[in-house]
Prior knowledge:
The protein is mainly alpha-helical. About 70% of the residues lie in helices and about 0% in strands. It has one domain. The chain has helices at about 20-40, 45-80, 80-85, 90-110, 120-135, 140-150, 155-160, 170-200, 205-215, 220-240, 255-260, 270-290. Helix 2 packs antiparallel against helix 4, helix 5 runs antiparallel to helix 8 and helix 6 (about 140-150) runs antiparallel to helix 7.
Amino acid sequence: MHIGTLAITRNPPGFYARSSQSRQERVCARLHALVRIVGWLPTNDQKFEYALKMFETQVGEAIQYWLAAATLNEVARLNTATLTALNRTPSFWITARVAMENQAILTAGKIYGQRRANPYNIDSLFDVLRALRATVFSRDALAARKRRMSDNADEWLPQFMKGVHVPTATDIDRLHQLSKRHRKTYEAQYADVRILHVAHSAIADPNVRWAIFQKTRVSDFAKLIIFLNQLQDALWNMYYNGRRPTLRPMAYSVQSLVGKKLEDLRNNRNQEHIVAETRKCLAIFTQAAVPQRAQSSAP
């Protein structure tokens, strides 16, 4: 029996311990109420920053829940002392691991699911990108943001602006097409799990339940949520730094992340931070639960 562990974070790290999505939805409702009551309208920058923050929150939740559970499993597989410690209270750790895996699948559905049930899905993000591209990503808009963020911006801004890329409609379309590949993976492998098993008790026959899980691939889910992290990173740098929308390589295999030294895991990367936090938590728990002489070095 392998068990897993818990932890959450991001940017650099933004803590998402509670249901951040519902909190963001409440904020959005209040903004709409302000518009109706006092006629306040957000600027284009505020509209995009809100959409980006909503997306960042969803991505952070999916990655952190999934990799916390996966790291728990992987460390227990590698370290017999940790496995012994976890199996002193196995029901709790199994419950924690399954809850995190289910929450990751639910959150992925908020992003990749159809808009009628998920109003802040990835399509709504691209709608905002297309509607605001010509204004919020212009050179003048970026220069204004830099001046707001730095008191001495005029000293370095002219040189900085020489390397700025203004995204084109083709850039946005390319990113959207890439997201659709991962949506196909979600719909083919995980949509039924989310809808019929996690979100609703729609399956009574264990053979049917087994069949829908047989379609899933853990590595494919890891790839689709790491793509979301790459996309969020690209959009953030496109908006705040005028960079080309390039998807930077990011490790997604829990085996490779657990295999790294703790000091080599970067604190400002969603996936690396949560793996490090989970490993630290398990090391503390193992040390407290298992006599020193029975422990091996925790990964």
